[in-house]
Amino acid sequence: xxxxxxxxxxxxxxxxxxxxxxxxxxxxxxxxxxxxxxxxxxxxxxxxxxxxxxxxxxxxxxxxxxxxxxxxxxxxxxxxxxxxxxxxxxxxxxxxxxxxxxxxxxxxxxxxxxxxxxxxxxxxxxxxxxxxxxxxxxxxxxxxxxxxxxxxxxxxxxxxxxxxxxxxxxxxxxxxxxxxxxxxxxxxxxxxxxxxxxxxxxxxxxxxxxxxxxxxxxxxxxxxxxxxxxxxxxxxxxxxxxxxxxxxxxxxxxxxxxxxxxxxxxxxxxxxxxxxxxxxxxxxxxxxxxxxxxxxxxxxxxxxxxxxxxxxxxxxxxxxxxxxxxxxxxxxxxxxxxxxxxxxxxxxxxxxxxxxxxxxxxxxxxxxxxxxxxxxxxxxxxxxxxxxxxxxxxxxxxxxxxxxxxxxxxxxxxxxxxxxxxxxxxxxxxxxxxxxxxxxxxxxxxxxxxxxxxxxxxxxxxxxxxxxxxxxxxxxxxxxxxxxxxxxxxxxxxxxxxxxxxxxxxxxxxxxxxxxxxxxxxxxxxxxxxxxxxxxxxxxxxxxxx
Amino acid sequence: xxxxxxxxxxxxxxxxxxxxxxxxxxxxxxxxxxxxxxxxxxxxxxxxxxxxxxxxxxxxxxxxxxxxxxxxxxxxxxxxxxxxxxxxxxxxxxxxxxxxxxxxxxxxxxxxxxxxxxxxxxxxxxxxxxxxxxxxxxxxxxxxxxxxxxxxxxxxxxxxxxxxxxxxxxxxxxxxxxxxxxxxxxxxxxxxxxxxxxxxxxxxxxxxxxxxxxxxxxxxxxxxxxxxxxxxxxxxxxxxxxxxxxxxxxxxxxxxxxxxxxxxxxxxxxxxxxxxxxxxxxxxxxxxxxxxxxxxxxxxxxxxxxxxxxxxxxxxxxxxxxxxxxxxxxxxxxxxxxxxxxxxxxxxxxxxxxxxxxxxx
Lengths: 546, 361
Hints:
The complex is a heterodimer of chains A (546) and B (361).
Chain A: E1 13-17, H1 21-24, H2 26-38, E2 41-45, H3 51-54, E3 58-60, H4 67-80, H5 86-92, E4 93-94, H6 96-103, H7 108-115, H8 119-131, E5 135-139, H9 141-144, H10 149-163, E6 172-175, H11 182-187, E7 194-195, E8 199-200, H12 204-214, H13 226-231, E9 239-243, H14 247-250, H15 254-262, E10 266-271, E11 283-286, E12 295-298, E13 304-307, H16 320-330, H17 341-351, E14 393-394, E15 413-418, H18 436-439, E16 444-447, H19 449-454, E17 462-467, E18 470-478, E19 486-490, E20 518-525, H20 536-540
Parallel strand pairs in A: 1-2, 1-5, 2-3, 4-14, 5-6, 9-10, 10-11, 15-19, 16-18
Antiparallel strand pairs in A: 7-8, 12-13, 15-20, 17-18, 17-20
Helix pairs in contact in A: 4-7, 4-8, 4-10, 7-8
Chain B: E1 8-12, E2 15-19, H1 25-31, E3 55-58, E4 65-66, E5 77-79, H2 83-98, H3 115-122, E6 147-149, H4 159-167, E7 173-176, E8 183-186, H5 202-206, E9 212-214, H6 215-218, E10 228-233, E11 242-248, E12 251-257, H7 270-274, E13 289-291, E14 298-300, H8 303-321, E15 326-330, H9 336-350, E16 355-357
Parallel strand pairs in B: 1-5, 15-16
Antiparallel strand pairs in B: 1-2, 3-4, 3-5, 6-9, 7-8, 10-11, 11-12, 13-14
């Protein structure tokens, strides 16, 4: 997030797009609700009539994957009606003139034909956002999990740049990160293009620094992304170490993933449970879990916080850093003698400029949001307050692109996937906590009542959902939260593995999968023979894991 | 500071103290360690003035005033603990207690659950003095696994109603009737699961009497040992809510929201509040496993064997296909140290950049 969570009750206008915050980031959503109570206005763009839509002032039910068209038209209206922050554009941005010319042709009427939202609603949203003194954008993976995920994010940045909604309280472009330490995994350097602290691996100064720190020559080119590595498994990639990820359930195109992992010569998995992915490994290391591990995590607002062990782990489970240090030693490498989490974290701080002012002791009270460039620095709750680090914000000339797969005669319905409040990801944790089943015991495909009637389905009955990559059987729930022609399922339940279906296209820059837009066919089927059995093994031509 | 730059002051129990414009008498007194008793006050909520325990003497006012709803003004002369105020508070406590069945409340009920019991002790208030009536009707028929609804212990402070509305914006809890007939209930008087309730647990944590209680924590009331707390961060989404994990011995018995957590300021959701016991699940891995070369099945192994096996296999792959043939995927769930060590393994050990995390999925 460019701005702190504490800013969330400060905007005059809130623009939520591709974020189901009341279910996925419920505590952050309470701040937005308080802003509304105070009198803020809210725009919500989402294909589904999610909880936030119910409390919005302008709701834009866009077709899945059409975000760029909507955002171009909003920019058009803001430019047309002179709602620009001229001095901000002058002082802090570049390519502004070209951008204003660029958006002149993208009218609300044009966008309406693509995203399906009435032109007057697009106008209303643009006037609200453009007219606000303090407007803030919040988004989640509804923006990024498309073939045009980068374009979507840049379209949002364009809106913020043209209206000067950056670097001030109650403004910003704010991605809500989905996992407790997904920000930290990037901070710590688990990226193919960056060393710790987002230092590019292709910059000679960084290469020298890490070659020196690690006492060995380093490769000069970027590594491959996980998507590419899975594609090349059994070919150029022969061994994988997977830490705490249930890849075969959470990643797109499950059959492809399983095939990839099976074709490795060696798969090492570190996890707290025997996940479907761990079942495929040659070696499984038992890790300590939350509340058993001393360590550090970074939240969505870049706040670096301490995790503390409260109980001992079961049996011989060990912290991930310990496992990897010992494995490094067994590999015969120097410099893997780490004996504590503190030692590991302090090395990370010593190599990462954004953590240079931090160490294990300084973060004890959750006070710092990075960058913290030197000891004594108070941290940076709000980015860009003194302009942009790299000079100027650059407007991007974007155009709308269709998703790689679009609805057609064979697959006439959009499937969009996501999460539900009582379940977390693939339920490895929430599925093993007492009581959560009371709130959510099974997956149900959310279908508009008109589609249920039109397709001959029954509310509570079973349907077969298929894409070019496979098919899944799932119970159906009638709800007007889904628009006509679009259905929704979460990927929480292993017996409804919707990621068998997904995987049609990736963002060319980030290789993020288009999990939010997948054309499918839908037809009624008989209930599975015995409830409790998934019946999927047969449908998929393989046996479901135990 | 006042408008003309001078400090705003009032007299508090004979001492001149400074205050900030907009502060209530209660807030000023709290800052000066006065420990004014209250039952309907939660610093995160709008002042309510319902319980009247926080009354103080204000010179010039005919009757004592509720300090939680009265804004501090320059020159006020306030007395927080006169004999007559203390008597009045004791009578009030005895009236409150008359509504109440249990005054000995297990702290596992929730964060504020001891507030009433503590005040009854402080004022040595007798529970049987007034012939009260129970307000509310317990809903032990509500089969939800998280929130105990024992309204026999309700004192109608409305904190649950207010936290649900003001903090959560859910408006799941409502009020019926008045006076002794007041009932805290849900819309249409049904079960919480049929209401707008999201089971965030905030009502449990603000309840000062244990009328609402954390059923998951209370299920552990027989676990031996003193309850200790450890400050850490919730394991679920990226908001990073601070929590205090309650433990007895080696067992987690519950979770308390951290009121001073910078990301959450006391708030939690159903997952952070209640989904903690996966940690002790019987399916947790407690030993390494290796795939048996003969049977092809995973079997338990010692650390020595498992580490050797992994290192041998990885070395063989590197020897045969080169160091570029090893790939690593870090977790968005594990701490920094896990991600850092995995990238260190790849970069310092193999010299490649073949490392990613799960954020692309």
